[in-house]
Amino acid sequence: MIKHLADCTVLQNGVKMPWIGLGVWRVDDGAQVVHAVKTAIQHGYRSIDTAMIYKNEEGVGQAIAEAGVPREELFITTKVWNSDQGYDTTLAAFDESLKKLGLDYLDLYLIHWPGTDKYADTWKALEKLYKDGKVRAIGVCNFHKHHLEELMKTAEVKPMVNQIELHPLLSQKELLTYCKQNNIQVEAWSPLMQGNLDHPVLAKLAQKYEKTPAQIVLRWHLQNGVVIIPKSVKEHRIMENAALFDFALSDEDMGRINDLNQNQRFGPNPDEFFLV
Ligand SMILES: NC(=O)c1ccc[n+]([C@@H]2O[C@H](COP(=O)([O-])OP(=O)(O)OC[C@H]3O[C@@H](n4cnc5c(N)ncnc54)[C@H](OP(=O)(O)O)[C@@H]3O)[C@@H](O)[C@H]2O)c1
């Protein structure tokens, strides 16, 4: 089990990916994102999750440059947005992201949403970037099992990561099992239910373990073998969300959290979120 903030899962190609990263959706470019990313790195985070559509890749890049940690110790993820799906457009979008981030390679590049009919071509572009050594690992976001099955019909390289909405109200049990069987690392987005942590079961567990509801939920993810990227712009929460190693949830309490599932999404269902 993970014991340290820098501990990693090993992806199917041998690349190490930290179990914990900082998410930066809805963090403003400029001072806010620079401060959040630098604060996280100072407190030991080594993984940052951004996306072209978050419009803060430049600030993330600035923070990386100023943080004083060697590039190779960091794990940087960004994503190709819906309107850039397709082979040539994805290659161009990748170059633009890399330029904004001020980097010469990425650690993980993801398809942001499946859409309907373009993701096979988009994936071909990701495979090229991977084979050319411009990105160390490639994957997808928001892929249901049927999207993964379809993609694997034509893929030469299997997706290494599937980043999906996952939290106690949406436990995604079947998809998690399918990904584990296929050696696809699951990464949870909105791991903290976008801050909606006010739940009597979580409050009770927080009291029992002398932790916060956020820490209970994040520890539940880790014990389920899921990578987490909680977002915060506040230093005390950035620290809180990484202080998860001095307690363990019992099997019974893991079960109590599993039982909270209501298949409730805070974001769209990938089957209903089409490319724009
Ligand atoms: N691939 C995709 O389609 C996709 C979609 C959505 C998100 N993501 C990624 O996943 C990351 C995380 O998801 P998310 O940002 O939607 O939501 P989240 O991490 O579940 O929750 C973030 C919210 O919770 C608050 N918060 C953070 N730590 C807290 C704590 N310890 N106690 C109480 N509240 C806390 C934050 O506020 P403060 O900032 O004020 O602390 C913010 O409002 C994103 O930032 C993004 O990188 C990916």
From TrEMBL:
UniProt EC number: 1.1.1.-
Uppermost EC category: oxidoreductase
The NADP-dependent oxidoreductase domain, residue ranges: 20-261
Keywords per UniProt: NADP, Oxidoreductase
PROSITE patterns documented for this protein: ALDOKETO_REDUCTASE_1, ALDOKETO_REDUCTASE_2, ALDOKETO_REDUCTASE_3
Residues noted as binding substrate in the record, renumbered to the chain: H112
InterPro entries: AKR, AKR5G, Aldo/ket_reductase_CS, NAD(P)_OxRdtase_dom_sf, NADP_OxRdtase_dom
Lineage: superkingdom: Bacteria
A Pfam family per the record: Aldo_ket_red
A GO molecular-function annotation: oxidoreductase activity, acting on the CH-OH group of donors, NAD or NADP as acceptor
Membership in a protein family: Belongs to the aldo/keto reductase family.
Protein name (database record): Glyoxal reductase
Species assigned in the record: Brevibacillus laterosporus LMG 15441
